[in-house]
# Entry
Amino acid sequence: MAEEQEIWDADTAASYDTPGTGMFAPEVLGPTVDRLVALADGGAALELAIGTGRVAVPLAGRGVPVTGIELSQPMVDVLRTKVDEATVPVVIGDMATARAPGRFSLVYLVFNTISNLLTQAEQVECFRNAARHLAPGGRFVIELWVPRLRVLPPGVGATVWRAEPGYLGIDTYDVLEQRVESHHVWFAEGRDAHLFRSPHRYVWPAELDLMGQLAGFGLESRHADWSGAAFTADSRSHVSVYRLLDGRTSSRTGPLP
# Structure
């Protein structure tokens, strides 16, 4: 995970939060936190890759005890400007292997972060690590984008997924290795620009479900967003809820519990 530690350094951590906009916008965070409160069902939650506390801090503010695991100390340093260790304790380590004390009713991993694990084996181990932390019947929630391979013409290995004044987002694909590198370019009037790149291993929903089975989970529900919109062939992302199998769970995509 050395590559990931280099990416999530102090400079990235300092510029990560965008209060009130983007993924920090109330219309994004509100449904996320509402859904996680319901899924925690009165118990404690563990956030893998807790980052700067974008989700954990408001979730704890709703009365859900939250613990985190995070690889990047600079990201945790930013989190500590918001809440102390007693409010949201964090274990420094790899989300696929690090252990946090206690058992939880909910483990969650948001905003495509499982794709930061760059091999299938690491991603499977992340599922197993979630299972190790859960109480019987507990839930593991993953928010993940759907790979946009259908938009790639033959012989073209990149997509522009956002183009707006001052910003360009480009993904380059290696379809053999299931790898994608995201390029974020910020620019102004002059010639200078700032580039941030991050590598990912993309995962299809069906492959994700098989990873869950290997770790003892069954798919409880899948929706296109945190508000419960139906997941379809055209959905750009999904929120998938897995539950430790106990003989009483079933797979469905219907109304939220």
Remarks:
- The radius of gyration is 18 Å.
- Residues 186 and 221 are 37 Å apart (CA to CA).
